[in-house]
Amino acid sequence: MPDLADIDVIAPNFKRRLSGVTATVARLVPLQAQSIAISACAPEMPDDVPNVSWTRLLTMPRSGPSGARVWHARRNVEMIAGLTLRGVLGKRLKLLFTSASQRHHTRLTKALIARMDRVIATSAKTAGYLEREATVIHHGIDTDTFVPNPDKAALRTELGLPSGPLIGCFGRIRAQKGTDVFVDAMIRVLNEQPDAVAIVMGRTVDKDQGFLDDLKARVQAANLADRLLFLPEVPVWETPRFYQALDIYIAPQRWEGFGLTPLEAMACGAPTIATRVGAFEELIVDGRTGTLIDAGDVDQMASATSSLVTNADTLEEWSNNARQHMVDHFQIQQEADAIIAIYKDLLSA
Fold first, then answer.
1. Helix (H) or strand (E) run with residue 342 in it
2. What is the Cα 152 distance to its own chain's centre?
3. To the nearest whole percent, how much of the chain has pLDDT over 90?
4. Do residues 65 and 6 make contact, with C-beta atoms less than 8 angstroms apart?
């Protein structure tokens, strides 16, 4: 456990349950710790993440080794905590907030954001909802972990997946994620393309079990249960192998905050068909690394998928383009470095 007297940057994460913010802190802090004195402040973190208990914040020295510390909040509760530590307990803090939401903020959130020293937005669309200047820094991924597999056929055999053009959709199974749109589109595609196979892989919570049961019934009624497969969620360290097995990835969301799955898929060489939600329009180069479609449009999804499945040259070209685009623009080290630059600006101010 690090000594807070030696820490310049604190990245709080007050939510115990796994979330996108939790994953972001867990991915970034170990990388950033190689270049700057940073610690998470969270109930639980993986062993490789420097982490301190929130109770130690109360007794930490007023100043850090560089003077004021940076407090990097990503939720309202963490902004409130930073303001309290600074305004009530007299800790010398520079307050930084990262916004990922794409909606008009509540009065409380607006008031909190207005009191931050700097603000980061995870996409240009997100920045458009902020009523102050923000620096846009896209999320990145580990392009050494998410990488194409040179023997896709052998990998599919190992994973128990069928041969033929393979189309995938990963993540929570619910209406917001557009899983029903994917299933309806794939029923059309698989009827037209007898060699193609599709997989849905992800977790369903109790309240969405009826939604999943209905999707399976649609597939059964179409006599496609052996070619449109529903797979359980796998551990996070197993997901790159499933991306590597795909020929095409589809992100069918009706709404999304940012959305990392297209980045992970494209890094593994799978061109991506995605809806125009979240940050997808900033991640995918339409007609070069994938295709953008309207949310909820089964016709567009089916047409875009069939077009790729039947054009091997385009599929190969877009696969290569997708991988290179991720390496050039969406490496997690690039995200970490861009945020560190802001930390250093705040520390030197």
1. helix 332-348
2. 24
3. 86
4. yes
Give the chain's domains with CATH numbers: 4-140+332-348 (3.40.50.2000), 152-329 (3.40.50.2000)
The DSSP line for 245-258 is H-SEEEE--SS-SS
pLDDT digits (tens, 9 = 90+) for 29-65: 999 999 999 999 998 888 899 999 999 999 999 999 9
Instruction: Specify the pLDDT at position 280.
Output: 95
Q: Is 18 exposed, middle or buried (0-12, 13-18, 19+ CB in 10 A)?
A: exposed
* Structure confidence at residue 235 as a pLDDT band (50, 70, 90): confident
Does the reported pTM lie above 0.85? yes
For helices 209-221 and 179-192, what crossing angle results, to 10°? Answer: 10
Q: Where are the beta strands (DSSP E) in the chain?
A: 9-12, 38-41, 69-73, 93-99, 118-121, 135-136, 166-170, 197-202, 228-232, 248-251, 272-275, 290-293
Give strand pairing partners of 41: 12
Residues with Cβ within 8 Å of 308's Cβ and at least 6 positions away in sequence, in order, are: 247, 248, 271, 273, 291, 314, 315, 318
124-134 tens-digit pLDDT: 999 999 989 99
